[in-house]
């Protein structure tokens, strides 16, 4: 690889210290490197996106990278990251590996979510981690009517419904009691957050299934309102009767792996179990 772009979280590198160091290092090695700001497109000649920040920054960069069809590598400037493999101390070693084409590519499945209002599709987006449907400001719980492949599954009264990929099983879904799943698996997880029942658990579906979540009626005359978030960065308001149809996306996020560390080794390290 010789052509790089930096996708950064400016709050994690406010003085451009790490950004400047990486650019200087790559350019001294004969490579090209530019900073791709949030509003800028990725240029066609780019071969790799260097994501400076943490897992949240990489999630946002994943959507940007789809149109350019480039792989990403996360350089963690935060505290805890499952997606951002490289830390500050390992930056130059990782850059050398990229320059020498010494790496592997790992494809991560994504989800696509389409929102329907009165039977008409009004919004669609993709997510690498999860699609979360949660209450919009009101302290009341939401009634979620859940269907799989067109067949009714169950109702949940809960604060939120989290539909996640295996990659997202270590994100928001984990705090809601979701199992941790290897990112190499092909499946979809549905996890209610704070359900008002004693027997609600995460449900795991094949990645070929279609999940449809309908916002049920509330206890008052006015429509129930909720918010649909895609990887925590895009919110779209929905109300009683609206439906969110979720499937596996056709596109995948390409993550560069430098270390030959297994998922179990990474998991053990992140959980602090030596």
General description of the model:
The structure is a single chain. The protein has helices at residues 17-28, 55-68, 91-99, 172-175, 263-270; strands spanning 3-8, 32-35, 48-53, 72-76, 104-117, 120-127, 130-135, 142-148, 151-158, 160-164, 187-193, 203-206, 211-215, 225-230, 234-239, 243-257. The protein is α+β, with helices and mostly antiparallel strands and 274 residues long. The strands form three sheets. A six-stranded antiparallel beta sheet has the order 6-5-16-13-8-9, with helices on one face. The radius of gyration is 20 Å and the shape is elongated. The two termini are 35 Å apart. The mean pLDDT is 90.
Give the structure's gist in a few sentences.
With 274 residues, the protein is an alpha+beta fold. It has five helices and 16 strands.
Q: What keyword list fits this structure?
A:
5 helices; 274 residues; six-stranded antiparallel β-sheet; alpha+beta; elongated
- Gross morphology is elongated
Structure class: alpha+beta
- Element pattern in H and E: EHEEHEHEEEEEEHEEEEEEH
The whole-angstrom Rg is 20 Å
User: Which strand-content bin applies to the residues?
Assistant: 35-45%
Fraction of residues in H or I helices: 10-25%
- Major sheet description: 6 strands, antiparallel
The residue-averaged pLDDT reads 90
Number of helices: 5
């Amino acid at each position: 690889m010789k052509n790089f772009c930096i996708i950064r979280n400016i709050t994690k590198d406010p003085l451009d210290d790490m950004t400047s160091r990486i650019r200087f290092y790559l350019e001294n090695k004969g490579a090209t490197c530019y900073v791709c700001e949030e509003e800028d497109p990725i240029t066609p000649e780019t071969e790799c996106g260097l994501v400076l920040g943490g897992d949240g920054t990489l999630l946002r960069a994943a959507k940007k990278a789809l149109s350019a069809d480039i792989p990403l590598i996360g350089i963690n400037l935060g505290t805890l990251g499952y997606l951002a493999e490289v830390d500050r101390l390992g930056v130059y070693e990782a850059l050398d590996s990229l320059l020498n084409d010494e790496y592997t590519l790992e494809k991560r499945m994504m989800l696509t979510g389409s929102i329907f209002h009165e039977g008409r599709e009004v919004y669609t987006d993709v997510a690498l981690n999860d699609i979360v449907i949660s209450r919009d400001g009101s302290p009341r719980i939401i009634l979620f009517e859940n269907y799989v492949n067109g067949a009714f599954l169950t109702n949940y009264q809960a604060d939120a419904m989290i539909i996640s990929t295996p990659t997202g099983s270590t994100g928001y879904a984990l705090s809601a009691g979701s199992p941790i799943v290897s990112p190499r698996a092909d499946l979809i997880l549905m996890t209610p957050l704070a359900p008002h029942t004693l027997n609600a658990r995460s449900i795991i579906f094949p990645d070929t299934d279609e999940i449809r979540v309908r916002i049920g009626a509330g206890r008052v005359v006015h429509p129930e309102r909720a918010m649909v978030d895609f990887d925590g960065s895009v919110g779209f308001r929905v109300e009683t009767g609206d439906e969110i149809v979720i499937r596996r996306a056709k596109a995948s996020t390409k993550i560069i792996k430098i270390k030959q560390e297994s998922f179990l080794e990474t998991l053990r390290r992140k959980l602090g179990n030596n």
